[in-house]
Design a protein that fits this description.
This protein is α/β, with parallel strands linked by helices and 333 residues long. The protein has 12 helices and 11 strands. It has an 11-stranded mixed sheet, with helices on both faces. It starts with a strand and ends with a strand.
């Protein structure tokens, strides 16, 4: 089996209680950063960008939470990578007429910088890779993690979803009506996924499936039924579904079309807490894991029908622009 044994997160939420942010004045909300000096020596941190510090901090939180010193592998998903450093490098290149450029921003502008910096801080020399496929980045990273453990290649994997949203990039997406009905967030969420259960395990990942460009709603529904059937389950075995609704009519129409399929199964959502960004899926997975462990559903997480305890099994459903879809089945241990 595959288990989630540790969680670490730096997000727009504080660590104590989930609340829906006030977006009356802005639709662009940035992270509530911890004291980075707890996780990274200040002399080292001063040359790091915010997203790298957040990723390292969330990774160390997850390792501590799992009681683990060193993972066998580090797998990351990021839609934009270190976009802030990329902007700084390009801006300096224009302002300085392509001369006298500082190398730091260029070095830290690549997408795989995040995984590399985590590995250097932990001194982890195992399998290290980054997936960058916009809204399906974390789903792909988690699928790789799932397969690494199922095949016995790794025993403990540090997997994360890391993204920042700069004012400039937020403005560019606004011109494309990307934020219609929703607001932007950002975050770094790390999970310790293992092949063995511990006394503090959050939940187990029973199965995963990813598919591309379904031809109809009926095809998506069949994929759900196939996933359940392959694990000797039916829809009646689901206590809830966690959906990637964000308030954008085009995005949510995919979930709305399946309302009849779900029937009385409670529907939960998470992006009202995290904001929308390319790897918000990671926030949703860690929230689902916490629901299964604590048997408590956060206030205002219910979209349709109330969840009743015991909560044994939740199906996580996510898509990006109705092209790339992911189904992740999580259950109590």
């Amino acid at each position: 089996m595959v288990y989630i044994n540790g969680i670490g997160a730096v997000s727009i939420q504080n660590q104590d209680r989930l609340v829906i942010p006030d977006i009356s004045e802005t639709k662009h909300i940035r992270c509530q950063d911890p004291d980075f000096s707890v996780y990274i020596p200040p002399m080292i941190a001063r040359r790091m960008s915010k997203i790298i510090k957040r990723a390292i901090a969330s990774s160390k939180m997850a390792l501590t939470d799992a009681g683990l010193e060193m993972p066998d592998a580090i797998i990351s998903g990021t839609g934009l990578g270190c976009i802030e450093d990329t902007e700084k490098f390009l801006t300096a290149m224009i302002q300085n007429h392509e001369t006298l450029l500082q190398p730091t921003h260029f070095i830290q502008s690549t997408h795989n910088t995040i995984s590399s910096q985590i590995a250097m801080q932990l001194k982890c020399y195992g399998y290290n890779t980054t997936y960058s496929h916009l809204g399906i980045s974390f789903g792909t990273a988690l699928l790789d993690t799932f397969l690494q453990i199922k095949t016995g290649a790794c025993q403990n994997v540090l997997v994360g979803g890391y993204d920042e949203m700069t004012p400039n990039y937020h403005l560019m997406l606004s011109k494309l009506n990307f934020w219609e009905g929703c607001f932007s967030g950002e975050g770094c969420v790390s999970l310790i996924v293992s092949g063995q259960q511990t006394p503090d395990t959050y939940c187990k990942i029973e199965a995963m499936d990813m598919f591309y460009r379904p031809g109809s709603t009926e095809e998506i529904e069949q994929k759900v039924l196939d996933l359940l059937k392959n694990n000797n389950l039916t829809k009646d075995d689901l206590d809830a579904v966690m959906l990637g609704c964000n308030g954008n009519p085009q995005n949510d129409s995919v979930y709305d079309a399946m309302t009849g399929f779900w029937g009385t199964i409670p529907q939960l959502t998470y992006r009202q807490f995290s904001g929308d960004y390319f790897t918000a899926t990671a926030f949703g997975i860690q929230l689902t894991a916490k629901i299964l462990k604590t048997q408590t559903v956060p206030e205002k997480a219910c979209r349709k029908n109330q969840v009743h305890t015991p909560i044994r099994r939740i199906l996580f459903q996510q898509h990006f622009q109705n092209h790339a879809h992911a189904l992740i089945l999580l259950s109590v241990c």
